[in-house]
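Q: I have two molecules that I believe assemble together. Could you output structure tokens for the complex as a whole instead of separate predictions?
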Amino acid sequence: GAGVSQSPRYKVTKRGQDVALRCDPISGHVSLYWYRQALGQGPEFLTYFNYEAQQDKSGLPNDRFSAERPEGSISTLTIQRTEQRDSAMYRCASSFMSNDEQFFGPGTRLTVL
Amino acid sequence: AQSVAQPEDQVNVAEGNPLTVKCTYSVSGNPYLFWYVQYPNRGLQFLLKYITGDNLVKGSYGFEAEFNKSQTSFHLKKPSALVSDSALYFCAVRGLGGKLIFGQGTELSVKP
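A: Yes, here they are, computed for all two components at once.
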């Protein structure tokens, strides 16, 4: 498909488990962004990449959260030792360059029990 | 620090009437402003953006937005609302590196 894809769409896990969320951006898009959206709120920035380089990770809440984009295409957001407060919708977006409009994927709904 | 505010949690409009969804911003320097729409169980969809130039920006699905520098506003408008416009609308401002800083969203409900 031509759009941003994310997998899984839904993830239910138990507290303390690690989870990996995947984002496949639009082909050729240089910039990739991760956001987290709590219910009833706007998305909040987590981190972003240009190509494979992580440019800004200031939005990651703590060191349990990490992200990578090793080949400048697919990105993985990993949450270690999940906690209930990590439950949210995690959204990925890509753009051709960092100042262009961003195209969002459908999101991954994470529930930590 | 850059921020946007959407003062209305919900806007109710009758089909066929004009609609306005409000957004105000606070930035240092020139603002780059965006509107996105979120339908249930779907991702955010880009509607329009203001970078520079004409203060009236036209976007997808008949929406437009008016940039007002003196009032630091970027209100979303449509001359005639459709029931299918019912959704959650987000205003955003571009921060460093292109990251988007979103408002809390406004739920638009258009009744037949």
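A: One point stands out. The radius of gyration of chain A is 13 Å.
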